[in-house]
Design goal:
about 750 residues, seven-stranded mixed sheet, about 40% helix, about 25% strand
Length: about 750
C-alpha cells in the first residue's frame, strides 16, 4: 500500500526536491490557518495577510475550476488525496505555477474531518520536461526516515520485519536490533491481554504501554492494518506517543471521579440547574430531601421544590459572580411537607462561560433542634444559677441570726449551767445544718460552673495549720493524732487558691477523723513535678480507720453516695464531701484517687497545680498590707444591713469587742452617714433596698477624699462565682459571707487594724 502511494506521489516528490515547497493547513471551510515561510516567499504576502482568508481568493482564473473539482472529490471521499497543477496570484499581481498536493485529515478514532494539509511546490519554467521521478523505494525511504511516528512491519506472530528510524527518537532503540525479535517483550505485562485480544483487521486502533530503553513506559497508540503479501499475511503498524495525552486524560478522569465522589457522598443536597432554572441532575441527598428520584427531577423546574416565589432569586443569580447564600429557607417535599434548609447558589462555568449553577441545600432541622435544646439548657442553667443565688441568700440570712444569737447567748450564760448545755446543743445542730447546706450549695455551684479560683499569695504551712486547727479538737476528743510531713523540696510561699486547698484538706482529713477510732491521721506533702507554668504538689491523707470495702471503692466519688450498709448510718453527712473534693481538685488542675495498696484504713492521694511566689528582698511575700487603723482610740464602725436580726447580731458582736457601732438600713443612708461622720470600717450588706451595697460603695469611693475613705467589707449571703470579683471591682477591700462568726469578724478587723 505504501509503495502504491509512493508511485502516485512521485511527481510531487520530484518537485519537492527541485523547487520551493510550502506547507499549509486549511480549515474545513478552506481558509488558511497555518503557513510555513516558504508559502510567504512564493506569494509575497505576509502571514497576517493570508491567515483566515479563503484559499480560492488567490487562485488564477483558469485554475479555479480544476481546484473546485478536486476539492469536491476529496470531500466526497472519492480519493484519499489529489494532486494537480494550479496558478496562484502573487502580491505583485503576477501568476505563479505551483504543483498542489492536498490531503483531507480525519480523526482515526471517530472519523471526524479535521482539516486539509496542502503542499505547494513551485514548478520551475523550462525544467519540467527534465524532471525524472525518483524510484519509489527511495521515496518510501525518505518518508520512513523523516516521519515522527513509529512504523513497523511484523509477522502475525509478532516477529518484527521492519522498524522505522523514528523508534530511536521515541523509545531509544536502534531499529536494526529489533528486527527478527518478538516485540511483545517490550509491552507492559498488563497490556499483553489487550494485544492478544486484538486480532489485526483492515483498520484497528489500540493503546499499549511500551518500555523505553531507559526502563520507563510510554503510552503508544497504534493503528494496525492487515496486509496481504502474496500467500502470507503481515501486520503494518503506525504508532504515536500519546503519553502526555494519556496523563491529561488521567487527570481529567481523576477530577471527574473526585467531583462525583464529592457530589455523591456530600451530606448536603446538590442540584445542578440550567440558566432557566430547570434541573439537570442531583445527588442522593437531593433525592432524600425532596422525595423525588433523579429521573423525576431531571427537566423539572426547581420552583416545584423551592417555591415559585423564589424562582426569580435563582434566575437572578446569573448576573452575580460569586457563590452566595440566598433567603431560600424551605424545601417542599414531594408529599407536601416542608423542610427547613440553608441554601447556597454557586455558578457552573465551562470555558469561562456561565452555563448554569448549583444550588447547595443543607437540612438544618437537626441543627434547629440542637439550637433549641442549647437555648433551653442555657435558660435552665441561668435559672439554676439564679436559684442558687437566691437559696444561698435566703438560707444563710436566717442561719446568721440563729448562730449569731446562739453565740451571744453562750457568752452570757454561766459555765456548766443547763441553759449553756441547751445553747451548745442548738449551736452544734446549727453548725451541722449549715455544713449540710454548704455541701449542697457547693456541689450545685461546681456543677453549674459557678466556682472560680482566687489566685493569691499564701504560705502553705499557714494554710494547712488553719485547716487542721478546726479538726484537732475533734481528733483529741477521740484520742487520735494528726501528723503532717512536708518534703524539704516543697516551697513555702505559693500562689493559688488557699481557701479551696483548705476546703479539700478539711473534707479529706475530716472524713479520716470521722471514720477512725484508734490511731490517727497522717498528711504527707511532696513535689510531684515542676514546670515553667507551675508546680504540682502531691498530698497523701492516710488514716488507720475502718477502711473502705472493695466493692464500694468504684463509687466513692459519686455524689450523694454513702456506705450506708457498711456504716449503718452511724455518721452524719450528705455524701457530697468526696464529690465536691474531686471537683475542686480538678478545678485546681489535679486529680484524686484512693490508694488501693493500703492494708489498714484508707489513703487518698491528690495533686494540685500552684505557682511559686517571688519573695521580696526581706524574704517575706512582696505584698504587705499597710496599717490603716487609728492609734490610741477605739474603732468607729458602720453596719449597713437591711435585715433587723442580722443588724442586731453584727452590732452585738462588735460592741462586745468594744467597738463604737452605728447602723444604716439601706444604701442611701450609708452614703449620707459616711459623708457626715468619719468611719474606720463599714460592714456593707450587698443586697439592700433602694441603693444596694455595690452602688453605695462606688458613691463613697468617688465622693470622699482619700484620707477619709473607710475600709469597706462586703457582707453577703451569696457565695457564688463572681460575687467576690463584683465586690472588689466596686471598691470593697474584702468579702465575708453569712452566717457570720465572731472569730471571722475578729480576723477581718485584725487584717486591717
Amino acid at each position: 500500500m505504501l509503495r502504491q502511494h509512493a508511485e502516485v506521489y512521485s511527481r510531487f516528490g520530484q518537485a519537492y526536491k527541485t523547487g520551493k515547497v510550502g506547507v499549509a493547513f486549511l480549515s474545513m471551510d478552506e481558509k488558511w490557518t497555518r503557513i510555513n515561510p516558504a508559502v510567504v516567499l512564493m506569494l509575497g504576502y505576509s502571514e497576517e495577510q493570508l491567515l483566515e482568508r479563503e484559499f480560492g481568493e488567490f487562485l488564477h482564473n483558469d485554475s479555479l475550476a480544476v481546484y473546485k473539482k478536486m476539492m469536491g472529490a476529496l470531500q466526497a471521499g472519492e480519493a484519499p488525496f489529489f494532486e494537480c497543477e494550479i496558478k496562484l496570484t502573487r502580491a505583485a499581481g503576477t501568476p505563479v505555477r505551483l504543483l498542489l498536493h492536498a490531503v483531507l485529515v480525519s480523526d482515526p478514532c471517530t472519523g471526524e474531518k479535521l482539516h486539509y494539509l496542502i503542499h505547494l511546490a513551485e514548478i520551475l519554467e523550462g525544467n519540467t520536461s527534465e524532471i525524472a521521478p525518483p524510484p519509489s523505494d527511495e521515496l518510501y525511504r525518505l518518508i520512513a526516515a523523516n516521519i515522527r511516528d513509529i512504523v513497523y512491519y511484523s509477522t502475525l506472530d509478532n516477529i518484527c520485519l521492519y522498524c522505522s528510524p523514528s523508534i530511536q527518537e521515541v523509545l531509544g532503540y536502534e531499529p536494526e536490533k529489533l528486527i527478527g525479535r518478538d516485540i511483545r517483550g517490550l509491552i507492559h505485562h498488563e497490556d499483553l491481554s489487550v494485544l492478544e485480544l486484538s486480532e489485526p483487521m483492515e483498520f484497528q486502533s489500540i493503546q499499549l504501554r511500551i518500555r523505553h530503553a531507559d526502563g520507563r513506559y510510554l503510552w503508544i497508540e497504534f493503528t494496525l492494518r492487515l496486509i496481504e503479501d502474496g500467500n502470507s499475511m503481515s501486520v503494518l503498524a503506525v504508532g504515536r506517543d500519546v503519553t502526555e495525552r494519556k496523563a491529561v486524560e488521567t487527570m481529567l478522569q481523576e477530577s471527574i471521579e473526585r467531583y462525583t465522589s464529592l457530589k455523591k457522598y456530600n451530606h448536603d443536597a446538590i442540584i445542578s440547574l440550567d440558566l432557566q432554572g430547570n434541573i439537570i441532575n442531583g445527588n442522593e441527598q437531593a433525592c432524600q430531601l425532596t422525595g423525588y428520584t433523579i429521573p423525576e427531577m431531571v427537566g423539572m423546574s426547581v420552583s416545584l421544590i423551592i417555591g415559585a416565589h423564589h424562582l426569580h432569586d435563582v434566575i437572578g443569580y446569573c448576573n452575580e459572580n460569586n457563590s452566595k447564600e440566598r433567603n431560600i429557607n424551605l424545601i417542599w417535599h414531594k408529599d407536601g411537607h416542608t423542610v427547613e434548609v440553608l441554601t447556597t447558589i454557586a455558578p457552573i462555568i465551562i470555558n469561562e462561560e456561565r452555563v448554569g449553577f448549583y444550588i447547595i441545600v443543607k437540612d438544618i432541622t437537626e441543627q434547629k433542634k440542637l439550637l433549641i435544646a442549647k437555648e433551653i439548657a442555657e435558660n435552665t442553667n441561668k435559672a439554676k444559677s439564679e436559684f442558687l443565688a437566691m437559696m444561698s441568700h435566703e438560707i444563710r440570712t436566717p442561719m446568721n441570726g440563729v448562730l449569731g444569737m446562739t453565740d451571744l447567748l453562750l457568752d452570757m450564760s454561766e459555765p456548766g449551767s443547763v441553759q449553756r448545755e441547751y445553747l451548745d446543743i442548738i449551736r452544734q445542730s446549727g453548725h451541722t445544718l449549715l455544713n449540710i447546706i454548704n455541701d449542697i450549695l457547693d456541689f450545685s455551684k461546681n456543677e453549674a460552673g459557678k466556682t472560680a479560683l482566687h489566685e493569691e499569695p499564701f504560705v502553705l504551712k499557714n494554710c494547712m495549720d488553719s485547716a487542721l486547727e478546726l479538726l484537732l479538737l475533734k481528733a483529741e476528743a477521740k484520742g487520735l493524732y494528726i501528723e503532717v510531713t512536708t518534703g524539704a523540696e516543697v516551697p513555702e510561699h505559693l500562689i493559688g487558691d488557699a481557701d479551696r486547698l483548705k476546703q479539700i484538706l478539711l473534707n479529706l482529713v475530716g472524713n479520716a477523723v470521722k471514720f477512725t477510732y484508734t490511731g490517727g491521721v497522717t498528711i504527707q506533702v511532696r513535689t510531684a513535678a515542676k514546670a515553667a507554668n507551675g508546680i504540682t504538689l502531691q498530698f497523701t491523707v492516710a488514716d488507720t480507720g475502718i477502711g473502705i470495702p472493695e466493692d464500694s471503692r468504684s463509687r466513692l466519688f459519686e455524689p450523694f453516695y454513702q456506705l450506708e450498709q457498711f456504716m449503718g448510718r452511724r455518721h452524719e453527712g450528705t455524701g457530697l464531701g468526696l464529690a465536691i473534693t474531686k471537683q475542686l481538685v480538678e478545678l485546681m488542675g489535679g486529680s484524686i484517687a484512693l490508694d488501693s495498696g493500703t492494708e489498714i484504713g484508707a489513703a487518698f492521694v491528690f495533686t494540685v497545680v500552684l505557682r511559686e511566689e517571688d519573695k521580696g528582698s526581706d524574704g517575706e511575700p512582696g505584698t504587705e498590707l499597710p496599717s490603716l487603723g487609728p492609734v490610741g482610740r477605739e474603732l468607729r464602725i458602720l453596719v449597713a444591713e437591711d435585715n433587723e436580726i442580722n443588724r442586731i447580731v453584727l452590732r452585738k458582736i462588735l460592741e462586745k469587742r468594744g467597738y463604737a457601732v452605728d447602723v444604716a438600713v439601706d444604701g442611701l443612708q450609708v452614703v449620707e452617714m459616711a459623708g457626715s461622720k468619719d468611719y474606720d470600717i463599714i460592714f456593707m450588706d450587698v443586697q439592700m433596698p433602694g441603693m444596694n451595697g455595690l452602688e453605695a460603695t462606688r458613691v463613697i469611693k468617688q465622693t470622699l477624699p482619700q484620707e477619709k475613705l473607710p475600709v469597706i467589707i462586703a457582707v453577703t449571703a451569696n457565695a457564688l462565682k463572681g460575687d467576690r470579683e463584683l465586690c472588689l471591682e466596686a471598691g470593697m477591700e474584702e468579702y465575708i459571707s453569712k452566717p457570720l462568726r465572731s472569730e471571722a469578724i475578729s480576723n477581718i478587723i485584725g487584717k486591717f487594724f
